[in-house]
């Protein structure tokens, strides 16, 4: 448990952002290993990184000699290894709801809008930038509209997605709202999600995980 | 715990297929509520179904008055409510690996190739069928190549993805290989995955979950 932690991260990756929040909420110290997704033809495609993660994606968490992939599986691992404060609530039913919200973002929004997908459209199909941006916005609006319906007026919703403790769903929601703004999505449709986001970003654990606070963020983004 | 279970399912949905396997492995009885993704403009878009799942996707598990979405969150719920036989192994490190394999399929392959995405390409961008099929195969090959690397020769791999007990990763892998064949992917590149698939499909719990065994499968598919 005292083995050092390293996070292979890219400042603007929303999957890496999730894990940074989780590590911060657990109060764990970690070193950032920057993997630049655009430089050198994408450093995630290097032979060295492929040995760390055959999927050639960030994040990866290094814990001792282990190299752990998939942001949600990493958050579950953190919660099992360092149970307090918990990222998941105490009943199976509540945990199901939190995981479903997290997966809504992690399966049904983010992978559709990932860098590699947008590169495919540009390189294979010559899809112009405005149509690529429209695609991104389409899936964000689809997903966040469902999330808004699942959160607004739900009896389990509190200051955060589930009750009054920030957890796994919040770790996914906040990075996705950052992405939504980046692509110019009209945020007025998501009042409950925005209220939760604001509460999260008041916490130092979320604030320190923001893209613009990262050591590999370019000067102009800070 | 004795409340009845209903699975809102579509015979060929690979996310519903995952949950059918999980329910069968747990030995739980459940009723299938068919949701036809193509009939009536997509029954998942009806007002009634939107009330059940704002995401308008299958599967949903009904358990008493609860309606649970997201296949992996449902599998976790099954594992917590009915712990034996377990879908997840006993150590945090092994669980991380199993969840990462499951998420590799559930986040980084399947959502890219889902019906709604292919409908978007056809209806919004007029992408011809051969290019849509090529897109599907591209992400399957990307994802399964990484899964093959994570499974082949790994010390934790046994008869199944993790050891000699079928679990959550197998619940995701088998439906994804079904999809891969459907789209004509060259399977020879995935010997370890195919070996695990064959072992799984020898089990009655997997066999009964196959698309062609479902009550809503068309006659010609059986």
Automatic annotation (TrEMBL), chains A, B:
Keywords: Isomerase
Matches recorded under PROSITE patterns: GST_CTER, GST_NTER
Top-level enzyme category: isomerase
Residue ranges occupied by any GST N-terminal domain in the UniProt entry: 3-86
GO terms assigned for molecular function: glutathione transferase activity; maleylacetoacetate isomerase activity
GO cellular component, one term: cytoplasm
CDD domains: GST_C_Zeta (cd03191), GST_N_Zeta (cd03042)
Pfam families noted in UniProt: GST_N
EC number annotated for this UniProt entry: 5.2.1.2
Organism superkingdom: Bacteria
Keyword Isomerase on entry: yes
UniProt keyword Glycosyltransferase present: no
GO biological process terms, semicolon-separated: glutathione metabolic process; L-phenylalanine catabolic process
Domain GST C-terminal per the UniProt entry, residue ranges: 91-219
Record-linked InterPro entries: Glutathione-S-Trfase_C-like, Glutathione-S-Trfase_C_sf, Glutathione_S-Trfase, Glutathione_S-Trfase_N, GST_Zeta, GST_Zeta_C, GST_Zeta_N, Thioredoxin-like_sf
Family: Belongs to the GST superfamily. Zeta family.
PANTHER family documented for this protein: GLUTATHIONE S-TRANSFERASE YFCF, MALEYLACETOACETATE ISOMERASE
Name of this protein: Maleylacetoacetate isomerase
């Amino acid at each position: 448990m005292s083995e050092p932690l390293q996070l292979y991260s890219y400042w603007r990756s929303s999957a890496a952002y999730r894990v940074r929040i989780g590590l911060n909420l657990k109060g764990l110290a970690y070193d950032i290993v920057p993997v630049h997704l655009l430089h050198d033809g994408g450093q995630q495609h290097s032979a060295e990184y492929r040995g760390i993660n055959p999927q050639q994606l960030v994040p990866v968490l290094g814990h001792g000699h282990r190299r752990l992939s998939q942001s949600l599986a990493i958050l579950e691992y953190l919660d099992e290894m360092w149970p307090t404060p918990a990222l998941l609530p105490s009943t199976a039913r509540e945990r199901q709801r939190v995981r479903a919200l997290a997966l809504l973002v992690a399966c049904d929004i983010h992978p559709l809008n990932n860098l590699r997908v947008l590169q495919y459209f540009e390189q294979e199909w010559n899809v112009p930038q405005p149509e690529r941006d429209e695609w991104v916005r389409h899936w964000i609006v689809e997903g966040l509209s469902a999330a808004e319906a699942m959160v607004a007026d739900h009896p389990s919703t509190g200051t955060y997605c589930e009750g009054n403790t920030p957890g796994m769903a919040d770790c996914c929601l906040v990075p996705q709202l950052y992405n939504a703004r980046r692509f110019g999505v009209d945020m007025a449709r998501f009042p409950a999600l925005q209220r939760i986001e604001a509460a999260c970003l008041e916490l130092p654990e979320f604030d320190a995980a923001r893209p613009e606070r990262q050591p590999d963020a370019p000067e102009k983004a800070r």
